[in-house]
């Protein structure tokens, strides 16, 4: 069962990384074009997925520490590999811009915590410092719910760095069992998702 689920999630990653096909022209975002659960991802989102995939595949060459603050988090993510260090900076920069715009990409491993951060973007204060090997981020908020979301998301990213593809697989499977893959424009923030079926791995 675990191997079958792994194959499903890896196939989903491959579909997203491959990009939209010619047959996807004219499909809306809930059509049955390429993407997780029928979603069609734009080129910027697919580029981010490629960066995330590269970082996760090379997770053993990435160092990350997170300190939970009373009002948020401080994270340090680095790599002695110059190419990975550039990818870390690129990912943080592009995702930071999307949070500021409220442009939730609907990533296949996206968690409720990350969605809460997008929805509460105006309540998040972010300070980013780049270093030769990576990036330092301090994110804070005066809203306790946003603070909890920041800390939860930081822990989720740390898990990806620590375990790599198995962690990505598990996050994707959680989303495939629930309603997460509805595009941001169609999500009702007041809706309480139904619990998915128990994981019998």
Low-confidence sequence ranges: 1-40, 179-201
Given the structure, what is the number of helices? 6
Q: Give the fraction of residues assigned to helices.
A: 40-55%
Class by SSE composition: alpha+beta
Radius of gyration: 17 Å
Mean pLDDT: 76
**SSE order, as H and E?**
HHEEHHEEHH
Record field, number of beta strands: 4
Report how far apart the termini are.
Answer: 6 Å
What's the arrangement of strands in the largest beta sheet? Answer: 1-2-4-3
Which range does the strand content fall in? 5-15%
Major sheet details: 4 strands, antiparallel
Give the overall silhouette.
globular
Oligomeric state as shown? single chain
Can you describe this structure?
This protein has a domain at about 45-165. It contains six helices and four strands; from the N terminus they run H-H-E-E-H-H-E-E-H-H. The chain has helices spanning about 1-20, 45-55, 80-100, 110-120, 145-165, 165-175, and strands at about 65-70, 70-80, 125-130, 135-140. Residues about 1-40 and about 180-200 have low confidence and may be disordered. A hairpin with a 2-residue loop joins strand 1 (about 65-70) and strand 2. A four-stranded antiparallel beta sheet has the order 1-2-4-3, covered by helices on one side. The longest helix has 20 residues, at about 80-100. Helix 1 crosses helix 2. With about 200 residues, the chain is α+β, with helices and mostly antiparallel strands. About 45% of the residues lie in helices and about 15% in strands. The chain is globular.
């Amino acid at each position: 069962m675990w191997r079958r689920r792994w194959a499903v999630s890896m196939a989903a990653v491959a579909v997203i990384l491959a990009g939209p096909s010619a047959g996807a022209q004219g499909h809306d975002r809930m059509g049955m074009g390429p993407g997780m659960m029928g979603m069609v991802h734009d080129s910027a989102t697919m580029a981010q997925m490629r960066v995330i995939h590269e970082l996760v595949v090379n997770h053993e060459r990435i160092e990350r520490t997170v300190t939970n603050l009373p009002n948020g988090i401080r994270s340090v993510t680095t790599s002695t590999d110059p190419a990975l260090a550039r990818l870390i900076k690129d990912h943080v920069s592009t995702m930071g811009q999307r949070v500021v715009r409220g442009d939730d990409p609907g990533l296949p491993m996206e968690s409720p915590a990350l969605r809460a951060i997008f929805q509460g973007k105006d309540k998040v204060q972010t300070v980013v410092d780049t270093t030769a090997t990576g990036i330092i981020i301090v994110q804070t908020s005066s809203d306790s719910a946003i603070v909890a979301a920041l800390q939860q998301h930081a822990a989720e990213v740390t898990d990806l760095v620590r375990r790599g593809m198995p962690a990505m697989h598990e996050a994707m499977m959680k989303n495939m069992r629930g309603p997460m893959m509805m595009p941001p424009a169609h999500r009702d923030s007041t809706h309480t998702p139904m619990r998915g079926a128990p994981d019998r791995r």
